[in-house]
Write a structure and sequence with these properties.
By secondary structure, this protein is an alpha+beta fold. It is 21% helix and 25% strand.
Protein backbone atom coordinates (compact mmCIF):
# COMPACT_ATOMS: atom_id res chain seq x y z
CA UNK A 1 0.00 0.00 0.00
CA UNK A 2 1.32 3.41 -0.92
CA UNK A 3 0.51 5.86 1.84
CA UNK A 4 2.73 8.83 1.10
CA UNK A 5 1.68 12.45 1.36
CA UNK A 6 0.59 13.74 -2.01
CA UNK A 7 0.61 16.99 -3.92
CA UNK A 8 -2.65 18.29 -5.33
CA UNK A 9 -3.79 20.97 -7.74
CA UNK A 10 -6.99 22.04 -6.01
CA UNK A 11 -8.09 24.48 -8.68
CA UNK A 12 -6.99 22.69 -11.83
CA UNK A 13 -9.91 22.07 -14.15
CA UNK A 14 -8.24 20.99 -17.37
CA UNK A 15 -6.12 17.96 -18.19
CA UNK A 16 -3.27 17.76 -20.68
CA UNK A 17 -4.22 17.38 -24.31
CA UNK A 18 -4.63 13.64 -24.83
CA UNK A 19 -2.94 12.25 -27.94
CA UNK A 20 -3.94 8.69 -28.74
CA UNK A 21 -1.62 7.37 -31.46
CA UNK A 22 -1.48 3.64 -30.64
CA UNK A 23 -4.25 1.72 -32.37
CA UNK A 24 -4.30 -1.26 -30.00
CA UNK A 25 -6.89 -2.16 -27.44
CA UNK A 26 -6.13 -1.53 -23.79
CA UNK A 27 -6.08 -4.65 -21.62
CA UNK A 28 -6.23 -5.71 -17.98
CA UNK A 29 -3.79 -7.49 -15.73
CA UNK A 30 -4.34 -8.87 -12.27
CA UNK A 31 -1.32 -8.11 -10.05
CA UNK A 32 -3.26 -5.53 -8.05
CA UNK A 33 -4.51 -4.79 -4.59
CA UNK A 34 -7.79 -3.08 -3.77
CA UNK A 35 -8.25 -0.96 -0.65
CA UNK A 36 -11.39 0.73 0.58
CA UNK A 37 -13.13 1.07 3.93
CA UNK A 38 -15.87 3.04 2.28
CA UNK A 39 -19.54 2.53 1.51
CA UNK A 40 -19.91 4.16 -1.90
CA UNK A 41 -23.12 4.84 -3.71
CA UNK A 42 -23.68 2.40 -6.55
CA UNK A 43 -22.79 5.00 -9.17
CA UNK A 44 -19.41 5.62 -7.48
CA UNK A 45 -18.28 2.01 -7.35
CA UNK A 46 -15.74 0.44 -9.69
CA UNK A 47 -15.61 -3.26 -10.49
CA UNK A 48 -12.37 -5.19 -10.03
CA UNK A 49 -11.96 -5.33 -13.80
CA UNK A 50 -12.42 -1.56 -14.13
CA UNK A 51 -9.78 -1.02 -11.43
CA UNK A 52 -7.45 -3.41 -13.21
CA UNK A 53 -7.99 -1.57 -16.47
CA UNK A 54 -7.06 1.77 -14.91
CA UNK A 55 -3.88 0.42 -13.30
CA UNK A 56 -2.96 -1.19 -16.63
CA UNK A 57 -3.60 2.07 -18.45
CA UNK A 58 -1.50 4.02 -15.95
CA UNK A 59 1.43 1.60 -16.28
CA UNK A 60 1.26 1.71 -20.10
CA UNK A 61 1.15 5.49 -19.96
CA UNK A 62 4.33 5.57 -17.87
CA UNK A 63 6.19 3.38 -20.35
CA UNK A 64 5.00 5.07 -23.51
CA UNK A 65 5.26 8.65 -22.31
CA UNK A 66 8.71 8.30 -20.73
CA UNK A 67 9.95 6.43 -23.80
CA UNK A 68 8.81 8.78 -26.55
CA UNK A 69 6.24 11.25 -25.21
CA UNK A 70 3.12 9.40 -26.41
CA UNK A 71 0.31 7.64 -24.55
CA UNK A 72 -1.61 4.42 -25.29
CA UNK A 73 -4.52 4.43 -27.68
CA UNK A 74 -7.87 3.89 -25.96
CA UNK A 75 -10.86 2.61 -27.90
CA UNK A 76 -13.79 4.17 -26.05
CA UNK A 77 -16.18 1.66 -27.59
CA UNK A 78 -14.84 -1.08 -25.29
CA UNK A 79 -14.99 1.05 -22.11
CA UNK A 80 -17.71 0.87 -19.47
CA UNK A 81 -19.76 3.89 -18.47
CA UNK A 82 -17.80 4.10 -15.20
CA UNK A 83 -14.51 4.49 -17.04
CA UNK A 84 -15.99 7.23 -19.23
CA UNK A 85 -17.68 9.07 -16.35
CA UNK A 86 -16.34 12.43 -15.14
CA UNK A 87 -14.47 11.46 -11.98
CA UNK A 88 -11.28 12.90 -10.54
CA UNK A 89 -8.29 10.96 -9.27
CA UNK A 90 -4.79 10.93 -7.83
CA UNK A 91 -1.91 8.84 -9.14
CA UNK A 92 0.92 7.99 -6.73
CA UNK A 93 4.32 6.58 -7.72
CA UNK A 94 6.42 4.69 -5.20
CA UNK A 95 10.10 3.79 -5.74
CA UNK A 96 11.67 0.69 -4.25
CA UNK A 97 13.82 1.43 -1.19
CA UNK A 98 13.18 5.18 -1.27
CA UNK A 99 9.40 5.72 -1.07
CA UNK A 100 7.34 8.46 -2.66
CA UNK A 101 8.51 9.38 -6.16
CA UNK A 102 5.58 11.51 -7.30
CA UNK A 103 1.91 12.07 -6.57
CA UNK A 104 -0.47 14.38 -8.39
CA UNK A 105 -4.22 14.76 -8.36
CA UNK A 106 -7.09 17.11 -8.97
CA UNK A 107 -10.60 17.65 -7.65
CA UNK A 108 -12.15 19.58 -10.53
CA UNK A 109 -12.21 18.22 -14.06
CA UNK A 110 -14.56 17.95 -17.01
CA UNK A 111 -12.60 15.02 -18.43
CA UNK A 112 -13.48 11.34 -18.29
CA UNK A 113 -11.93 9.15 -15.60
CA UNK A 114 -9.68 7.18 -17.94
CA UNK A 115 -8.30 10.42 -19.42
CA UNK A 116 -7.69 11.81 -15.95
CA UNK A 117 -5.72 8.67 -15.08
CA UNK A 118 -3.54 9.22 -18.15
CA UNK A 119 -3.12 12.89 -17.29
CA UNK A 120 -2.34 12.40 -13.60
CA UNK A 121 0.09 9.56 -14.37
CA UNK A 122 2.10 11.88 -16.60
CA UNK A 123 1.87 14.65 -14.01
CA UNK A 124 3.00 12.39 -11.14
CA UNK A 125 6.00 11.27 -13.18
CA UNK A 126 7.03 14.65 -14.59
CA UNK A 127 5.28 17.56 -12.85
CA UNK A 128 5.46 16.98 -9.08
CA UNK A 129 7.42 20.08 -7.92
CA UNK A 130 9.05 18.14 -5.08
CA UNK A 131 10.95 15.79 -7.40
CA UNK A 132 12.97 15.66 -10.58
CA UNK A 133 11.08 13.94 -13.43
CA UNK A 134 11.00 10.15 -13.37
CA UNK A 135 13.24 8.58 -16.01
CA UNK A 136 12.49 5.57 -18.21
CA UNK A 137 15.29 3.60 -16.54
CA UNK A 138 13.62 4.03 -13.14
CA UNK A 139 10.45 2.17 -14.16
CA UNK A 140 11.92 -1.17 -13.10
CA UNK A 141 11.78 0.13 -9.50
CA UNK A 142 8.37 1.88 -9.63
CA UNK A 143 4.91 0.73 -8.61
CA UNK A 144 1.78 2.85 -8.78
CA UNK A 145 -1.46 3.50 -6.94
CA UNK A 146 -4.68 5.19 -8.08
CA UNK A 147 -7.22 6.94 -5.86
CA UNK A 148 -10.58 7.70 -7.50
CA UNK A 149 -12.29 10.48 -5.59
CA UNK A 150 -15.81 11.48 -4.65
CA UNK A 151 -16.73 15.15 -4.88
CA UNK A 152 -15.56 17.14 -1.81
CA UNK A 153 -18.29 18.45 0.50
CA UNK A 154 -18.09 21.17 3.14
CA UNK A 155 -17.75 19.98 6.73
CA UNK A 156 -19.40 22.41 9.18
CA UNK A 157 -17.93 22.50 12.69
CA UNK A 158 -18.25 24.77 15.72
CA UNK A 159 -14.94 24.19 17.50
CA UNK A 160 -11.65 22.29 17.16
CA UNK A 161 -13.15 19.53 19.29
CA UNK A 162 -16.22 19.35 17.07
CA UNK A 163 -13.99 19.14 14.00
CA UNK A 164 -12.05 16.23 15.45
CA UNK A 165 -15.24 14.44 16.44
CA UNK A 166 -16.62 14.67 12.91
CA UNK A 167 -13.52 13.40 11.09
CA UNK A 168 -13.51 9.70 10.21
CA UNK A 169 -9.98 8.26 10.03
CA UNK A 170 -9.25 5.98 7.05
CA UNK A 171 -12.52 7.09 5.44
CA UNK A 172 -12.22 10.86 5.03
CA UNK A 173 -9.78 12.65 2.81
CA UNK A 174 -9.50 16.20 4.14
CA UNK A 175 -8.97 19.58 2.48
CA UNK A 176 -8.11 22.56 4.68
CA UNK A 177 -8.20 26.08 3.25
CA UNK A 178 -6.76 29.05 5.18
CA UNK A 179 -5.41 32.47 4.31
CA UNK A 180 -2.10 30.70 3.63
CA UNK A 181 -3.54 28.45 0.93
CA UNK A 182 -5.01 24.95 0.66
CA UNK A 183 -3.77 21.42 1.17
CA UNK A 184 -5.17 17.91 1.30
CA UNK A 185 -4.40 14.45 2.58
CA UNK A 186 -5.91 11.36 1.00
CA UNK A 187 -7.82 8.95 3.27
CA UNK A 188 -4.93 6.49 3.36
CA UNK A 189 -2.65 9.11 4.97
CA UNK A 190 -4.48 8.35 8.24
CA UNK A 191 -2.36 5.19 8.32
CA UNK A 192 0.72 7.38 8.82
CA UNK A 193 -0.96 10.01 10.98
CA UNK A 194 -3.65 8.22 13.02
CA UNK A 195 -3.83 10.90 15.73
CA UNK A 196 -6.34 13.55 14.68
CA UNK A 197 -4.33 16.42 16.18
CA UNK A 198 -1.18 15.32 14.38
CA UNK A 199 -3.13 14.85 11.14
CA UNK A 200 -4.65 18.36 11.23
CA UNK A 201 -1.41 20.04 12.33
CA UNK A 202 0.55 18.37 9.55
CA UNK A 203 -2.13 19.30 7.01
CA UNK A 204 -1.91 22.95 8.06
CA UNK A 205 1.88 22.95 7.78
CA UNK A 206 1.66 21.36 4.35
CA UNK A 207 0.47 24.66 2.82
CA UNK A 208 2.50 26.95 5.09
CA UNK A 209 0.03 27.62 7.92
CA UNK A 210 1.16 27.33 11.56
CA UNK A 211 0.59 23.79 12.88
CA UNK A 212 -1.93 24.99 15.49
CA UNK A 213 -3.92 27.14 13.04
CA UNK A 214 -6.81 24.66 13.08
CA UNK A 215 -7.11 25.23 16.85
CA UNK A 216 -6.38 28.94 17.22
CA UNK A 217 -7.97 30.25 13.99
CA UNK A 218 -10.60 27.63 13.23
CA UNK A 219 -13.21 30.32 12.48
CA UNK A 220 -11.03 31.58 9.62
CA UNK A 221 -10.66 28.32 7.74
CA UNK A 222 -12.83 25.91 5.79
CA UNK A 223 -12.72 22.13 5.83
CA UNK A 224 -13.98 19.75 3.16
CA UNK A 225 -14.02 15.97 3.16
CA UNK A 226 -14.15 13.39 0.39
CA UNK A 227 -13.67 9.65 0.00
CA UNK A 228 -11.50 7.56 -2.28
CA UNK A 229 -11.49 4.15 -3.91
CA UNK A 230 -7.82 3.12 -3.69
CA UNK A 231 -6.13 0.37 -5.71
CA UNK A 232 -2.76 -0.29 -7.25
CA UNK A 233 0.08 -2.62 -8.18
CA UNK A 234 1.31 -5.23 -5.72
CA UNK A 235 4.83 -5.44 -7.13
CA UNK A 236 7.48 -3.12 -8.50
CA UNK A 237 8.61 -2.89 -12.07
CA UNK A 238 5.95 -4.57 -14.21
CA UNK A 239 7.34 -4.48 -17.76
CA UNK A 240 5.30 -3.28 -20.72
CA UNK A 241 6.20 -4.44 -24.23
CA UNK A 242 6.83 -1.45 -26.46
CA UNK A 243 5.12 -0.43 -29.68
CA UNK A 244 7.22 -2.72 -31.90
CA UNK A 245 6.69 -5.83 -29.84
CA UNK A 246 9.26 -8.11 -28.19
CA UNK A 247 10.66 -11.63 -28.17
CA UNK A 248 11.06 -13.79 -25.07
CA UNK A 249 14.69 -14.47 -24.17
CA UNK A 250 16.56 -17.51 -22.86
CA UNK A 251 15.11 -17.44 -19.31
CA UNK A 252 11.48 -17.12 -20.38
CA UNK A 253 8.83 -14.71 -19.17
CA UNK A 254 5.67 -14.62 -17.09
CA UNK A 255 2.83 -12.88 -18.90
CA UNK A 256 0.37 -10.89 -16.78
CA UNK A 257 -1.80 -9.67 -19.64
CA UNK A 258 -1.85 -9.21 -23.38
CA UNK A 259 -3.52 -7.15 -26.08
CA UNK A 260 -6.41 -9.38 -27.09
CA UNK A 261 -9.52 -8.17 -28.95
CA UNK A 262 -12.00 -9.89 -26.64
CA UNK A 263 -15.69 -9.22 -27.03
CA UNK A 264 -15.76 -6.80 -24.09
CA UNK A 265 -12.22 -5.52 -24.54
CA UNK A 266 -11.03 -7.08 -21.28
CA UNK A 267 -8.32 -9.55 -20.40
CA UNK A 268 -6.91 -11.02 -17.21
CA UNK A 269 -4.39 -13.80 -16.71
CA UNK A 270 -2.55 -15.84 -14.08
CA UNK A 271 1.17 -15.26 -14.60
CA UNK A 272 1.28 -17.50 -17.68
CA UNK A 273 4.80 -18.80 -18.43
CA UNK A 274 5.98 -18.20 -21.99
CA UNK A 275 9.16 -19.72 -23.42
CA UNK A 276 12.15 -18.50 -25.40
CA UNK A 277 11.31 -17.25 -28.89
CA UNK A 278 7.68 -16.39 -28.12
CA UNK A 279 6.64 -13.17 -29.84
CA UNK A 280 4.88 -10.65 -27.60
CA UNK A 281 2.48 -8.04 -28.93
CA UNK A 282 2.81 -4.34 -28.09
CA UNK A 283 1.16 -3.60 -24.76
CA UNK A 284 1.80 -7.04 -23.29
CA UNK A 285 2.54 -7.00 -19.54
CA UNK A 286 5.21 -9.30 -18.05
CA UNK A 287 6.70 -9.63 -14.59
CA UNK A 288 9.79 -7.62 -13.69
CA UNK A 289 12.04 -10.71 -13.71
CA UNK A 290 11.00 -11.74 -17.23
CA UNK A 291 13.66 -12.08 -19.92
CA UNK A 292 12.43 -10.25 -23.03
CA UNK A 293 14.13 -8.49 -25.92
CA UNK A 294 12.27 -5.37 -27.01
CA UNK A 295 12.18 -4.84 -30.79
CA UNK A 296 13.87 -1.59 -31.80
Amino acid sequence: MLTQLCYVLLKESKSYSIILPMKKKIVFFVALYFFSHLAFAAEDRLTDREKAFLVNLSRQTLYYHLKDGTVPYVDEKVLTDNLKSKKCCFVTLDKKNSGLRGCMGLFESQEQLYKNVIDRTIAAATKDPRFTPVTYDELKDIKLEISVLTEPINLPFSSPEDLMNKLQPLKDGVIITTKYGSSTYLPQVWEQLPDKKDFLSSLCMKHGAPPDYWETNYKDMTVQTYQAIVFGEEVYGTIVVGKKGAVVGEKGAYMLGAVMPLKDGLYSGDNNKVVKGTKLLPGTFVTSDSDIIQNQ
